What we know:
CATH class of chain A: Alpha Beta
Largest sheet of chain A: 2 strands, antiparallel
CATH architecture of chain A: 2-Layer Sandwich
Number of domains of chain B: 1
CATH architecture of chain B: 3-Layer(aba) Sandwich
Order of helices and strands of chain B: HEHEHEHEHHEHHEHEHHEH
Radius of gyration of chain B: 18 Å
Shape of chain A: elongated
Strand content of chain A: 25-35%
CATH superfamily of chain B: Thiamin diphosphate (ThDP)-binding fold, Pyr/PP domains
Order of helices and strands of chain A: EHEEHE
Helix content of chain A: 10-25%
Radius of gyration of chain A: 12 Å
Largest interface: A-B, 35 and 36 residues
Oligomer: heterodimer
Strand content of chain B: 15-25%
Distance between the termini of chain B: 51 Å
Shape of chain B: globular
Distance between the termini of chain A: 7 Å
Number of helices of chain A: 2
Helix content of chain B: 40-55%
Number of domains of chain A: 1
Strand order of the largest sheet of chain A: 1-4
Amino acid sequence: MAKIKGAVTVETERCKGCNLCVVACPCQVLDLQKKEVNNRGYHFAYMAQPDKCIGCASCALVCPDGCVEVYKVVEK
Amino acid sequence: MENNDIIRPENLVYKRPALLSENHMHYCPGCSHGVVHKLVAEVIEEMGLAESAIGVAPVGCAVFAYNYIDIDWMEAAHGRATAMATAAKRLQPDKLVFTYQGDGDFSAIGTCESIHSCNRGENIAIIFINNAIYGMTGGQMAPTTLLGQKTATCPYGRRADLNGYPLAITPLLAQLDGTCYVTRQSVHKPANVRKAKAAIKKAFQNSLDGKGTSVVEIVATCNTGWKLTPEKANLWMEENMFAKYPLGDLKDVDAKK
């Protein structure tokens, strides 16, 4: 069966750490940085469990600041 | 497969619309305005209207909308966005003219303009963000504030005997003959975001086709004004806002045919 693999990139300087992408993700891929912050002092989002990503773009759809880009590959 | 193999231009499935400018948005973290801005930019881009769209910005948090979406904008006096849009559309009927207003603008100070431009059936699209509070000025009670909801000016909750009842303006507008499409959406979940995008697209198409006024109400959160985290604000909206402002189409003249 074809396996779908996804990945997201977060524009860390735009991210405001609102946590909405973390909640929207159906596979619990994303999380907010615990200690690291961007130049504005926000704990930005990152891929905590990259293997689980399916590239569904739920995170990008709900992101108010448009800082998530989604990539998807179907492995044959 | 490593992440670096996946993150390649040919595998891209979602990116920020090019019409959304590089400026950092001034909205609070988790504000619904950002999502709606993104949807408006996406729809205008997909319809190829970047050169022929005119937006009318309101007074409220979205007052700086012209900084974020790279199309032609006008800034209206408080509540008068639909009046300005009327003029713009009548002078340039081939353009897409839409207003982007919050509840303080559209259903409080601008109620007169809102109702009359909808009643005249102006060929404009109205995007109405309803977060039940005056967000920009610090979270005061708005006409749309729910009964019992606590705000800066009703710290013990809104009372019907003192403050009156919350105003749901879109059902009023749906009764008018001038409107062709009145719908209520939200943007708190991915599925709702997709539905809201389809609604905005339909409203813009109606405006171009000259069918009448289209109103897209977006039930939104104001997590700072509500004094909640963004995710808790979404839950609070589901529990409380949707009871008074249920989602769905209120009027669609095409559907009846």
